[in-house]
Fold this protein.
Amino acid sequence: MPARRPTLLAVDVGAGDHVLGSRDAPVTLVQYADFECPFCGRAFPELKSVLHDLGRRVRFVFRHFPVIEAHPHAESAAEVAEAAGAQGKFWEMHDLLFRRQAALDDGHLLAYVRELGLDAARVERELEQQVHRARVLEDIQSGLQSGVSGTPMFFINGRRHEEPGDARTLRAALLRAT
């Protein structure tokens, strides 16, 4: 008999997470995603719409889960997002990477860094020294502990969302959780 995947979020939301919304929101939505994943790319605008519509009722948490076997630029993109976060622009980079996910090679990533007005020399140094790699690996490990095997994967109030991640279905599940 095959082992069942965990259905609960193994690592609680903490100070190191990337969070949009109030910690007092009645619903917490955690997403494990890969910036190069086409499914995550298609889910991105739908998720933005749902979060906008539900406003303060939902706290959104983003966690990295680059599937490097299928997406060779995903880990670098995750590290660039973390480097942007270190300069106060994680969410701007997050959105830019999803909007431009067809071009995530190193040259494009550094162009995005400059586009957002970040210190490009600092980001290059941090990438060379893999300053943010451990943070990305923490997210991957927490995802594995939670049974994540692909992206996007959502957890609503700590329980894995088993339904499709389209806007209509996700909105309904979040409303049921409020």
